[in-house]
């Protein structure tokens, strides 16, 4: 067995060496673009360079309805993720929007843009590689060890931090538009990394026609179970759409239930309604996989209360992300000690 492992190790080293040799010229030939307002540097790659770094797209590490993600490697063995968007007029707009937003934002809990390629009809982004999957997998895949309550709270706090940054601290305020566990990646330290800004809206012109408009049906934001019902009725995009989605994720973290069950059509907001109306009953819906832990029920009640406020029918009654962070700092005293609160400019 030891000899077989040694052979596998040699094979891996040889493969990495081949990748490094094939992309040795990448940094010399690529064009560096710098945004003068933020000092954000990203590299423009040609398609041949993308093929070399991914060894002809040989390792797929993720996929969605509209894009596929491949593993890439720089000459120094640093890994990256190449996201290739499907080609269509609408998806081209989404690609350009995501590229523009990632060029402007810098936050420790946002996936970093390393470069892009405009040589093909499909949009191509080169992003930092996040090795630990996503929150959807960790919460709802039985093959993974259940997340501890403490880790769930840290992820919640980090997500609130990055949404506060997007909503209130960017020069052009940003509504993400598709907050859900599969868009929350986890790094090797299990820190939250928000991704997929293809549905995002930037600035104050975030107004689309109501969903009754046939022309705009395909532009509706969000995912089943996470989309703000008020947005579905009016087509109005606002920061409170993200707040609603955040509330759904908090419920998922408390209950361990999926936002929308494809098998029986059950929605977590309906299942957790008893706790949303009376946080004292939250014990009835706590994820049973947390049974082996000693959990502070006051913390769970606090988060159930936060979720209830986020899910208010009237958007104006929902809290801001700053309000949510303030509540968590005041009610869950240890959270600020465990999460580094970097000052982002």
UniProtKB/TrEMBL annotation:
It is an enzyme of class 2 (transferase). The keyword Kinase applies. ATP binds at residue 83. The keyword Ion transport does not apply. Its EC number is 2.7.11.1. GO terms for molecular function: ATP binding; protein serine/threonine kinase activity. Keywords: ATP-binding, Kinase, Nucleotide-binding, Serine/threonine-protein kinase, Transferase. PANTHER family: OS01G0750732 PROTEIN (PTHR47989), PROTEIN KINASE DOMAIN-CONTAINING PROTEIN (PTHR47989:SF26). Belongs to the protein kinase superfamily. This is Serine/threonine protein kinase. It comes from Handroanthus impetiginosus. The lineage of its organism: Eukaryota, Viridiplantae, Streptophyta, Embryophyta, Tracheophyta.
């Amino acid at each position: 067995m030891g000899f077989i492992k040694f052979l596998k190790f040699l094979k891996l080293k040889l493969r990495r060496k081949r990748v490094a040799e094939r992309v040795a010229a990448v940094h010399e030939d690529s064009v560096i673009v710098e945004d003068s307002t933020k000092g954000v540097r990203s590299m423009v790659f040609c398609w041949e360079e993308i093929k070399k770094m991914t060894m002809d797209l040989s390792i797929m590490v993720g996929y969605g309805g509209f894009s596929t993600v491949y593993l890439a490697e720089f000459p120094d063995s640093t890994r990256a993720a190449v996201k290739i968007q499907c080609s269509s007029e609408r998806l081209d707009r989404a690609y350009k929007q995501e590229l523009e937003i990632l060029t402007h934002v810098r936050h420790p809990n946002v996936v970093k843009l390393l470069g892009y390629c405009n040589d093909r009809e499909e949009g191509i982004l080169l992003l930092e590689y996040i090795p630990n999957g996503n929150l959807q997998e960790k919460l709802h895949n039985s093959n993974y060890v259940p997340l501890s309550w403490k880790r769930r709270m840290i992820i919640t706090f980090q997500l609130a931090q990055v949404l506060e940054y997007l909503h209130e601290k960017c020069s052009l305020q940003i509504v993400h538009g598709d907050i859900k566990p599969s868009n929350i990646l986890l790094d090797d330290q299990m820190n939250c990394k928000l991704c997929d800004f293809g549905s995002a809206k930037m600035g104050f012109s975030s107004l689309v026609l109501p969903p009754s408009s046939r022309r705009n049906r395909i532009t509706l934001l969000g995912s089943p179970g996470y989309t703000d019902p008020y947005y579905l009725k009016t087509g109005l995009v606002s920061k409170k759409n993200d707040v609603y989605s955040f509330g759904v994720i908090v419920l998922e973290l408390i209950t361990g239930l999926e936002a929308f069950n494809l098998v029986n059509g059950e929605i977590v907001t309906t299942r957790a309604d008893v706790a949303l109306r009376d946080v004292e009953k939250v014990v009835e819906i706590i994820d049973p996989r947390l049974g082996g832990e000693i959990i502070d029920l006051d913390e769970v009640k606090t988060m159930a209360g936060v979720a209830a406020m986020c899910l208010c029918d009237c958007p104006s009654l929902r809290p801001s992300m700053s309000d949510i962070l303030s509540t968590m700092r005041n009610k869950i005293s240890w959270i600020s000690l465990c999460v580094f609160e970097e000052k982002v400019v």
